[in-house]
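Subgroup meeting minutes
Present: P.N., E.W., G.H.
Scribe: E.W.

1. P.N. recapped why we're keeping a running log of single-chain structure predictions: easier to compare across weeks, and new members can see raw inputs and outputs side by side.
2. G.H. added today's entry (136 aa).
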Amino acid sequence: MMFRHTYPLAFMAAIALLAGTDAFAQAADGKTLFAKNCAACHQANGKGIPGAFPALAGNAFVQGAPGDVATVLLKGRGGMPDFSGSLNDADIAQVLSYVRSNWGNGAAAISEQEVGAQRGALGVPPASSARFSNKH
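Output recorded in log:
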């Protein structure tokens, strides 16, 4: 027996339009990656937890040089772990681009190539693609 679902044409058209938009896909992925990997400490609103985890909202460092910001995710900083083994260059670029353009931040996006160049300059090995590689 075969089941067939029917959806309103306008709904399907909207989904197709949004799914095909690179900017939408990148923003959604960056937001999702942030929620999964960062929001527990830095909070969904980017305000952090005073005295424990710094705010990313309005943070000059976050909006600064792309290589410096990428280094934090690739090598860690203070009590923050590195994400070099669990996030690939595209993922790091997406989450950083999301952070740099939300909560009042107005910095430019960071590209996968910029993250890859920084990974290479730091001598950080590529992220693992193993099924259970996310150590966070």
